[in-house]
Write a structure and sequence with these properties.
4 copies of one chain form a homotetramer.
Chain A: E1 7-13, H1 19-29, E2 34-40, H2 45-54, H3 66-74, E3 84-88, H4 95-103, E4 107-110, H5 118-131, E5 135-137, H6 145-155, E6 162-170, H7 179-182, H8 191-194, H9 199-215, E7 219-227, E8 238-245, E9 250-256, E10 265-272, E11 275-280, E12 286-291, E13 297-300, H10 308-312, H11 324-343, H12 357-375, E14 380-382
Parallel strand pairs in A: 1-2, 1-3, 3-4, 4-5, 6-9
Antiparallel strand pairs in A: 6-10, 7-8, 7-14, 8-9, 10-11, 11-12, 12-13
C-alpha cells in the first residue's frame, strides 16, 4: 500500500526522555514508510522545542501545545499536510488531542488505555464514527507474530471449544516506593492523570485485549481483588481477577507491579477441548502448542508451517530474534496501510488487523468493571 | 537414627498396578531403612494375595482386609511386629484404617487428603493425640530439597514481608472423558469415595500445603470458582481460587485437570518486599531467586551455598537429577526417624520435618471452604 | 523375571561416604528385587566393618578384603550364596575382583571404565566368555528412558542417515586445585589408580558409550587435544576430540572438569538427513526432536507416543520427575533379569539392554586412542 | 554526535527481496539518524530501478551499476553528497565497490566476510589506511547488548585467566539440497562468488569474530575438519575446528548448515579460572554468569547492575525484547558516530566500538587457515 512517498506524521507528547514516545518513533518508521515532521512533544514549551531538535524536526513545526499544533497544521497545503498524528501523552491527555485532531480531519494513532474514563471512550467512539478517520490504538502486543498465529489457531478451531484462559502480566519495576519516580512515570500513580486504577489501566488492559484478540471471547462477569502493597501509593499495584467469559469459558487475569524479579512478564495460556497454547512475551518468537496424545510442539516465527497472518508479519528469518519494537511496528504497519488508503481516497483494505476504538472502549469497560468490583470488596460484577 | 535393623511395615491398599502404592514402596525403602513385610493390598482378597506375591511378601502376612490385618498383626511378637502401617487407599478409606491401626498401637503413614470429610479429620486429630503414635501425611512435595530451601529463605526473612503467593497445579491427564478410567482412578470422580471436590482434594490440597509450608502463612478467606468442564463428570475438574492470607498477603491458587499439554505442573511463586522465589515441581532441582537490584539467581540442589535443611535432604551431587521418588523418600526419611524413636521408646527428634495430622486437618478446612464458596456461586468465605 | 525371592548381592568397595557405592546400593534395590547381604567395603578393614554396620550387614559377611570375601562366600550353601557381586572400587581395582569373582562362579556388576588398561579389558573379555557369567557395566546414562527412546528413533531410521554427532560432558567441580580432594576422589587424579587420562576415563567414556548406544555408530579415527588446566594436577582435566565414525558421520566429543557453572552437563545431539535429536542429562525426562519442515517437538517420558523400550523403562507418570537414580536402577533392572535367569539355569532373555564387557572393551579402545593422539600432539589416530 | 541532519547514504546491492539489504536499511535508519537516498541495488539494471521505487529513492539516484553510482555521486554538491555507502553484495563483490568508493572519498559500511580472498583483504586494509575514511564491517553479533557486557566482564578480569572458549553456530536451513536455492542464496554455494569455504565464510567467521571480541584472544593454531554432507554441493556445509589461542587457552569452533531443528544457533561459552559466561544469540537479552561457589546468575539487558558499554547500547527497558535488528542497529550507531565526525572534520570519538578492516583481515586469516588445514586432511596449521 505504498503511495510513492513516506507518510508524514506529527506527535503529541513523547518528548526527550519519554519511554513510549521513542518506541512510537522507531515503530512508525521501521519500515521506511513514515516520517516524523511535526510535534508538540511536551506541555512544557521549552522542552518541546529541545525535543524537536533532538528528533531533527524543523523549528517551525515544533509546537508549544497540541492546540497550537492542530491550528497551525490544519492550514498547511496538501503537499505538507500531516497524514496522521500520534498521541503518546499520559492517559488524561488522550481524549482532548484525539478529538481535536480527528475533528480537524487527521487520522490518529493513540496509546492505550484509550481515555481516562469510560464516558470519554464512548464519546470518542462517536467522534471516530462521525469523522470517519482512521483511529488506531497501540495495544502493541497484538502485533507479535506468534500472537497472530495463536489467534489464527484458536479461530480456526484447532483447540476445540475454549475452556480456560489464564493471562498474567507481572512486573517488578515498581516493587519499591521509588520505582515509579525513577522511571519518569510519576503520573502513573496519580489518579487524576492515570485514571481510577494503577496496575490495570497500565498493564492489565494489555492482558484483557490480548485474551480477546487471541480467543475472540468477551468477558461476561468478573471478580477483582485490587491491592496497594507499596505504602504511600495512591493507586493499586496488584490485581487478581477471576473471569467468566460469555459462552462458558473461565479465566484468571492477574497483574502486578510488585513482582521483584519479573521484568515484563506478560503471558497467556489458552486451554481448549482438544489442545492448548501458551505464549510468553519475553520469548516472543515461540508459541507452545499441545494437542491431546501428541508430543508438545514449539511453533516458531518464520516457518512455512505457520498461517498467513503470522507469515505476513515477519521481517527476518527464524532464529534472528524479533522483539518488542518489531511487534509494535507491525501494529503501525497495519495502521499505515489504512492511513495510506484514507489519504488517497481509497477504500480501506479488507484485511486490516490493528486495534481500533472498539477495542479501546471494551478496554475501558473492563477497567470500569474491575474498579466497581473492587469497590464492593471483590464481588462479582458484570462488564 | 538407625536402630540396627530395618523398620518393618505393612501396607493397606496399593495392590498390583496401583500408582501410589508403588511410589510408597519405593520411597519407604529407598534408603534401605525399611522393609515391607505385610499387607492388605486390596479389598479384593484374591488381588491382595496376588499383589503380595508380586511384592515378595509371605503368604501368611498377606490379608484380605485391613481389619483382618490389624487383628492378626496385633498378636505378633515384638521381633516380628510391624513398626508402622502405610495407608494408600482411596480417600474414603483413610479414616477407618488409620483409626484402627493407631488404636492398635501402630504408627501410621497416610496418603493425602487425610480423610473424606472435615469431621473425620477432626476426629482423627483426637485419636492421634490420644494414642500418641507417629502420624505422617504424604504431602510429598514438601520433601523436595529446593522446597526446603525456599521455606528456609522465607522464614529467615530474606524476602522481607510476603505480599503475594501464586500457586498453580495444572494437569491435562483428565482433559477428556476417558481420562480417569484409563488411569485406574475411577474413584477420583466419585464423590462417595473422593469427597466433595474433584480437583481440589486430589491436587489443589498439595498446593495449599506447599504454600503454607514455604511461607508459614495461613489462608484467612477465599473465593473459589469450581467448574466441571468434561461432560458427564460428577465432580469438578477445575478451580480458580483467590486467597487472602492472615496478615495481609494475597494469593491465587488455581488447579485443573483439563490443561492439555501440562503433565504435573505444580509451581509456587512467592513475592516479598525484598525478593521473590519460584519453584517448579517439574524442574525440582532448581529454585529461582530474585532480589531487588541484583541479577536473578538460580539456586541449585547440592551446593554449599544452601541452608542446612536443603543440605540434609540431598542424596547425590549437583547435576545428577533427583526426582519425585527421592522427594517422597525424604518425607519417609523424616517419618522413619520419628518411628524409630517411637519404637525404641526415645523422645522424638526435635528437628522433625514432615506433614502431620495438623497439616491434614488444615488441608480439610481448605477443601471445606472451597466447597462452601463454590456452593454460594463463588462468594468469599472464611476458612 | 521374579524368582520368588530377592537376589542377594555383595559389594566390593563403596564404603561409608563413597559416592558411587551409595548410588549402586539404591539403584540395585530400588525395585525391591535385590538385597545387599555381604561386602568388602574398603581396603581398610576397620572402615569396611563400620560400613557394614551402616548398611545393616551381618558382621560375619563383612570382609577386610575382596580376596577374603571371595574365599568365604564361595563356600556358602545355595540358600545363602550371593547371586552377584558389585564392584565399585577405583579403576585399578576393577580387573582383580572381577576376575576373582567371575572365576569363582559369581555374576558381576562393575563400574566404568571397565579396567585400568586396554590389555586388562581384553583379558577380562576372555574371562567373561570362558566363565559364561553375566557381566554388566554401569554406563548408567544409557539407563535413561529418553535415551532409550533416542536410540529407538535412530535405529528405526527416523532421522535418516546420521551425519553428525556432538557429545559434551562438562563439569566444573574440579575447576580449582582443591576440587578433587574435597570430594574424596584423590585417586581420580592419580595415574596409577585412575589410568592414563583424567577427564576421559572418568567422564568422557560415558560420552563415547552414549553416542554408540544412541546411534549404533563406531568411531573410526579421532584427534584428541588433552589439556591440564589446573596447576599441579598429574592428569588432564579437559579434552576436545574430533571424531570420524565408520560410514562417514562426523562428530565432536568434548569433556571437561574446569567448566565453572556446569554441574553434570552431559548432552548429546544427533543430526541426520531427515531430523535431529537432543538430550540433556540434567533434564532427563525430555528429548528434543526436530524433523525437516515441521515444528520442533519435545518428547517426554511416560507418554503413549513413545516406543516400547522407553515405555518399559518408566516407573512413574509424566511430570513426576525421574532422575539419576531411576536411570541407574534401570540398568540394574536389566542386569537383575539376566542374573535371575543365570542363577535359575534358564536362557537369558532375548531383549536384554545393558552395557556388557564388549562395551567396556570398546570404551578402553577409545581411551587408548585418545591418549595416543594426545601423545602425538593431537594428530589423528585410528581406534 | 548529531550533526543536525540525517546522514545520507547509498547502497550497493540489497535489491528487492534480498535478505541482508533489508536488514541494513532498517538497522541504518532505526534511530532516525540516517536516510537512504541513492543505490545500485542490483547488477540487473531493471531490478535496481524497481528496487529504488520500492525504497522510495529518486529515479535519478538509482543506478545500474556501482561504477555508475560512484561516478555520478562523486559529482554532487556537498548538500546532497552521500556521507557513506553500504555494500551488501555477495562476497566477490565487496572488494571492488569498497575500493572504488573509498578512493572516491566516501565512508563505507560493508558486509562480512570483508572480501573474497585474504589478498584482497590485505589490499583493502592498505586502501582504508591511505584514504583515511571510516570503514565499518558488519559482524553484527558484536552489536548485541549482552555480548558487550560479556566482553566487559572478561576484559575486566572477572573470570580470571581464560581457559576454554566454545563457539557454535548451527543452522538447519541448508540441510537439504534445495535449501540454498529456496533462499535466494545460490551464490553462497558457488566458490567463485562465496570464496573457498561454504559454512565458515558464511557463518563460522561470525563465531571467530565473536570469540575475539568477547575474550580478546587470538587464535594461534587450528585443526579444521570440513565436510560437505549434502550431495551435489560444491562447498562444505559443516566444520569442526579445534583451536589453540595465543597464551594457552583452548577452544572449539563448530558451525554447520545441516543441523535440522537449529535456526540461527550462534552461541559462545567462555570458561576462566574464576568463572564462566554463556551467551545464546537466540535469547540475546540474557547472559548466564557463574562464579565458583556462588549460585549461577542470569544477567539481563537493561539493568543498573550492568557495565557502561551494555547500558549505552540499550533502547528499551528490561523485559521488552530487543532482537537481531536492534543489535545490528547498534553497530550502525557506532559507525554513524564515526562517520558524522569524519564528514564534519572532527576527530573520531575515542570510544568507538564497531568492527573495522582489522577485524575483516583477521577474519580472512581465519578462513584461510581453515581451508589450509582442511586441504591437509585436518592437520594443525598456524593462522
Amino acid at each position: 500500500m505504498s503511495i510513492g512517498r513516506k507518510l508524514r506524521y506529527g506527535m503529541v507528547g513523547g518528548g526527550r526522555g519519554a519511554f513510549i514516545g521513542a518506541i512510537h518513533r522507531i515503530a512508525a518508521s521501521l519500515d521506511g514508510q513514515a516520517e516524523l515532521v511535526a510535534g508538540a512533544f511536551s506541555s512544557d514549551a521549552q522542552r518541546s522545542y529541545e525535543s524537536g531538535e533532538d528528533f531533527l524536526i524543523a523549528r517551525e513545526r515544533t509546537y508549544a501545545s497540541y492546540e497550537e499544533m492542530a491550528a497551525a497544521e490544519s492550514n498547511l497545503a496538501s503537499g505538507q499536510r500531516l497524514d496522521f498524528v500520534t498521541i503518546v501523552t499520559p492517559n488524561h491527555l488522550h481524549f482532548g488531542p484525539a478529538k481535536r485532531f480527528l475533528e480537524a480531519g487527521f487520522n490518529v494513532v493513540c496509546d492505550k488505555p484509550v481515555t481516562l474514563t469510560l464516558e470519554e471512550a464512548q464519546d470518542l467512539k462517536n467522534i471516530v464514527a462521525r469523522t470517519n478517520k482512521v483511529f488506531a490504538l497501540t495495544y502493541n502486543y497484538s502485533g507479535n507474530v506468534m500472537v497472530k498465529e495463536a489467534r489464527a489457531l484458536v479461530l480456526r478451531g484447532e483447540l476445540g471449544r475454549i475452556r480456560k484462559v489464564i493471562i498474567e502480566y507481572s512486573k517488578g519495576s515498581s516493587a519499591r516506593p521509588a520505582g515509579d519516580a525513577n522511571r519518569r512515570a510519576a503520573w502513573r500513580a496519580d489518579p487524576s492523570r492515570a485514571g481510577p486504577t494503577g496496575v490495570v489501566g497500565d498493564i492489565g488492559t494489555h492482558g484483557e485485549h490480548l485474551a480477546r484478540y487471541v480467543t475472540g471471547l468477551e468477558i461476561d462477569v468478573l471478580c477483582a481483588d485490587l491491592t496497594t502493597f507499596v505504602p504511600g501509593r495512591q493507586l493499586d499495584d496488584d490485581a487478581s481477577i477471576l473471569l467468566r467469559f460469555k459462552g462458558g469459558a473461565k479465566g484468571i487475569l492477574h497483574c502486578t507491579k510488585i513482582a521483584i524479579g519479573d521484568e515484563n512478564n506478560l503471558n497467556i495460556r489458552v486451554y481448549g477441548e482438544r489442545g492448548s497454547l501458551a505464549w510468553y512475551q519475553e520469548r516472543p518468537d515461540e508459541l507452545a502448542a499441545a494437542f491431546a496424545e501428541e508430543p508438545p510442539q514449539v511453533l516458531r516465527r518464520g516457518h512455512d508451517y505457520l498461517g498467513e497472518a503470522a507469515k505476513k508479519a515477519v521481517r527476518i528469518p527464524p532464529g534472528h530474534p524479533e522483539g518488542y519494537l518489531e511487534a509494535f511496528a507491525n501494529l503501525y504497519r497495519g495502521a499505515l496501510r489504512a492511513i495510506a488508503a484514507e489519504v488517497t481516497g481509497q477504500p480501506l483494505p479488507a484485511d486490516l488487523d490493528f486495534p481500533t476504538i472498539d477495542d479501546g472502549l471494551q478496554g475501558m469497560r473492563f477497567i470500569d468493571a474491575v474498579v466497581r468490583s473492587s469497590a464492593r470488596d471483590a464481588q462479582w460484577v458484570m462488564l
